[in-house]
Amino acid sequence: MQYKNLGRSGLKVSQLSYGAWVTFGNQLDVKEAKALLQCCRDHGVNFFDNAEVYANGRAEEIMGQAIRELGWRRSDLVISTKLFWGGSGPNDKGLSSKHLVEGTHASLRRLDMDYVDVLLCHRPDAATPIEETVRAMNRIIDKGWAFYWGTSEWTAQQITEAWAAAQRLDLIGPIVEQPEYNLLTRHKVESEYLPLYDTYGLGLTTWSPLASGVLTGKYSKGNIPSDSRFALDNYKNLASRSLIDDVLAKVKGLKLIADELEVPLSQLAIAWCASNPNVSTVITGATKESQILENLKALEVLPLLTPDVLEKIEAVVQSKPKRQESYR
């Protein structure tokens, strides 16, 4: 396992990591979670991602209990969680100072931890002044409840506004963004965020490297395995939007490239994400130890991503964002 700095910070995170979205609380309970987390740690993973909204808080409870029962040293781990959707009450959601502070306390109780390493604003909140959010996140850091803060699925403009507010207030801005990033979804990471990497030292903890499983090649029109996430009731609409002819044709083309390299398509897709120098860690998900082991072998595929192979991949997916026009 290789470790990279989280953006311009001194925090080291494993190049591949594990997230609790979909799995913990929906498909897995504590016993299964312990086995998966131990498998990750055995292979050098130190970064684990969660959110208050995952399984309505149950995902944090499962992760916290599993880590406690495994007896791991807290300082060996990098734990992140996200706040925005905390409940049904008018102040149980959003990025107000009230919800951020109360939501942090609630997450820490569920995780049974004194602090998280990284706390993320799960979505932007147009109803709350950005200065209020920046102050609240800095208060949380000052209290020792988190060490770093960041955002998830914010636009470059919104991140820039947060940094501008932080600089006006002489406070800390967001050092990490958590966007979706894969061979089919690339614009934010490769185009929109470009000015932010050098200007603010922004790091990325990207999610969905396999596009919710589409880039494993296991799906086809009318074929959804019963143990896959697309078989879950909550994800059937996503399946209908994802499994379209154009996408499936690209997956078929990518499978041919993976076969030429004699590697699984899933490993090729994850390695491609990890090869981006602006990506600090690629968050993966899995319900079985065998899936974790297969995902982690993606690091062995990185040396195979030669310029020629990357060119072949681009010819298939044709998803590379166009560079912004310069009129100088």
Defining traits:
328 residues; TIM Barrel; eight-stranded parallel β-barrel; 41% helix
In words, what does this structure look like?
The protein is α/β, with parallel strands linked by helices. The chain has a domain at 3-213 and 273-287: NADP-dependent oxidoreductase domain (TIM Barrel, Alpha-Beta Barrel), CATH 3.20.20. Helix content is 41%, strand content 13%. The protein has twelve helices and ten strands. It has an eight-stranded parallel β-barrel, surrounded by four helices. Strands 1-2 form a two-stranded antiparallel ribbon. The N and C termini lie far apart (43 Å).
Which architecture name of the domain at 3-213 and 273-287 does CATH use?
A: Alpha-Beta Barrel
State the helicity in percent bands. 40-55%
What is the H/E order? EEEHEHEHEHEHEHHEHHHEHH
Shape: globular
Q: Tell me the strand order in the biggest sheet.
A: 3-4-5-6-7-8-9-10
Distance between the termini: 43 Å
Portion in beta strands: 5-15%
CATH fold descriptor of the domain at 3-213 and 273-287: TIM Barrel
The number of strands is 10
* Structural class assignment: alpha/beta
Helical region count?
Answer: 12
Which segments are poorly predicted (pLDDT under 50) over 5 or more consecutive residues? none
Q: Give me the Rg, rounded.
A: 19 Å
**Largest beta-sheet details:** 8 strands, parallel, barrel
CATH superfamily membership of the domain at 3-213 and 273-287, which one?
Answer: NADP-dependent oxidoreductase domain
Oligomer kind:
single chain
Rounded mean pLDDT is 93
